GTPase Der (Thalassolituus oleivorans MIL-1), 450 residues
Amino acid sequence: VPVIALVGRPNVGKSTLFNRLTKTRDALVAEIAGLTRDRKYGEGKVGEYPFIVIDTGGISGQEEGIDEAMASQSFQAIKEADIVFFMVDVGAGITAGDRMIADYLRRSGKSAYLIANKIDGKNPDVVLAEFFELGMGEAIPIAAAHNRGITTLIDYVMEKLHPKVEPEEETGYLPDEAERAIEHEQLNIKGTKIAVVGRPNVGKSTLINRFLGEDRVVVYDEAGTTRDSIYIPYERHGQDYTLIDTAGIRRRKNITEAAEKFSIIKTLQAIQDCHVCILVLDARQGIVEQDLHMLSFVLNSGRALVIAINKWDGMDADDKQRVKDEIDRRFGFLTFAEMHFISALHGTGVGHLYDSVDQAYASAMAKWQTNMLTRILEDAVGSHQPPVVRGRRPKLRYAHQGGSNPPIIVVHGNLANDLPEDYRRYLANTFRRVLEIKGTPIRFEFRQGE
Ligand code: GDP
């Protein structure tokens, strides 16, 4: 998944563009001690291509004190990114700060785009000319606040990232999926891919070490970068698994280091790439905003999910009850995911986690025949007819599977698009129950057709 960093002086409109690109209120924030403005991370999607966006505090050009801290945020973001959107303000002209950023970007060798924001009603031919001297090519005009130029911008960038190829290519070019399959084969990645995610210090590394077992010697490349998680293949009871380690288990010495090694990019990439995500929470800290944001990223990804509430050891009965109440209150909506109260440190409850992981994997990857899905649909309709819509009763004809991880069930019929929400939910619940789908969300699509 490509990572796009937004950089530029304060007030050029980075946050506005960030919100436009991610279209969500959920952002993960990398908190670095002593900073008033942090890096914000969010996900966006154009067509079928997801991307990650990083918003930064901004570089002012007079880097002292807090500005220096902000500059270091921007430089960090540039390092993490594949693509940089360098934003300038059409009305403000070029400043010393802009020259500094342009300079840094040229030296970084990153693929960077110069974005001229606040074009509003102005004539691009006239106002963009001055930005040529930054040496970054032609500026792309947008008006983030008015949502103008953004689709064009993203299409342009995505087209460069994913050049369209003819379906019957003889060029040796491989589409992303196939390329990844080959890469995985080389790395010996097999079986269920598990991503262990969570805030720093919730116990991810401890859990991973528990999974791998003290005596198992795991050989893998320790180098890793800030962005690439390490994949650790292993076997348990004759079954293959691969852990995606976002925590950097081998290199860690202490708790401060845990926080420093924590990478949101790794977390987001791991969620995208796994079959089953284990979200680790810290019972002693309770549920905090960052946990909920991380959860929302897992839910958006459609990945199967198991929740591990860690550090359950040594808590007294009152504290346990308080945590359970809090979980009921805040995660009540989350009906598909299994929850486990565990101690990664002592190994308590860890075996049962695997039961849920296996179950979730099986459901996420299950394959169902069209005739089976159609029979379930017919039975569901038989015992509970869809309500009349615009004077006609919808006639649902058949269902087929449109994908896995998450499973997609496509229901065909006339007026299928017009089914009311509660009837859709009834169908979803029926499929979930009959197919015994556990631990994964299901997506439903309704297709119109006689
Ligand atoms: P990570 O940053 O999420 O990888 O967290 P670590 O695995 O490094 O754990 C952070 C701290 O919590 C360490 O001091 C661990 O020993 C401690 N810890 C982890 N799991 C447990 C647990 O189940 N119970 C208790 N009491 N402490 C734990």
